[in-house]
Amino acid sequence: MESLKKRVTEFSLEAHELYLNQSVPYLEESPDPLQFYRDWIGPNKPCIIRNALSHWPALSRWTPDYLREKVGSKVISVAVTPNGFADAVNGDRFVMPEERRMSFSSVLDILEGKQQGGGVFYVQKQCSNLLDELPELTDDLQPHVSWMSAALGKLPDAVNFWLGEARAVTSMHKDHYENLYCVVSGEKNFILLPPTDRPFIPYGTYQPAVYRQRDDGEFEVVDQTGSEKVPWIPLDPLDPDLDRYPEYRRARPLRCSVKAGEMLYLPSLWFHHVQQSHGCIAVNFWYDMEYDIKYNYFQLLEALSEVTGST
Questions:
Q1: What is the pLDDT of residue 190?
Q2: SS3 at position 154
Q3: H or E element that contains 264
Q4: What angle do CA 18, 308, 178 make, to 5 degrees?
Q5: Which residues pair with 79 in a beta bridge?
Q6: Which of 4, 5, 81, 245 is deepest in the core (most CB within 10 A)?
Q7: Alpha-carbon gap, residue 233 to 198, rounded angstroms
């Protein structure tokens, strides 16, 4: 078992030396589908594409005044937390946000300081909320990214809308989707780690719970009794506890900022942690590739990391 653990660790380090970049590269225009598949999707490497959204009316239209007029009365799902950490480890719990139904105008009022919310608010529902809750905005952008759909041979499985406060943080996690993350206004800041760094990234299993705001404005944590424990990453990459998780010293995180008009290609199974500027608006396209060869390959590495106790 020790020899297997050693080989898994060596493989992770070799990946950085052989093919992974030391920073996230930029492409200056929308790529050719086949070339993009060969250079980025197949090797499973992230990049930032500039000038890929320049034809979207949303870049100039999506001001607070326009959004109030267009969708201000729409009632949408909003994640509310006391500290900005939704879907994150808190002590011995994996705590999810309070899901609140609010008008879009109310969310804008909170972001602009016109109304006190008593928490941190983030529009982050990820079940194609742009199409389901805000279809009035779809004329301001593409229904899909044509060159990505051509490269993968399918349309996106979800199109999500994101809007929130600077205090809203997405904790470190991974998804099995091929992800195109498009910033319409503001800036998103990512910390990225490749799937091959899995042996260095700690996991635990946690009792699921949700935040609930009481009538006095304070938040409490309410267990979801009867639910299975949730595997999640307890480490904060902004301030990693290296005494507790010494293997993380061997991880090599990449940091990048995605600005308005730019698009991040985030490959499937890359670990990511996200922060944003206040009032940042973004749209992302998810392409579900759970059963492709690349996904199965990295799932094998995940299983080997767990079996060898590499974290």
A1: 98
A2: coil
A3: strand 263-266
A4: 50
A5: 99, 122
A6: 81
A7: 11
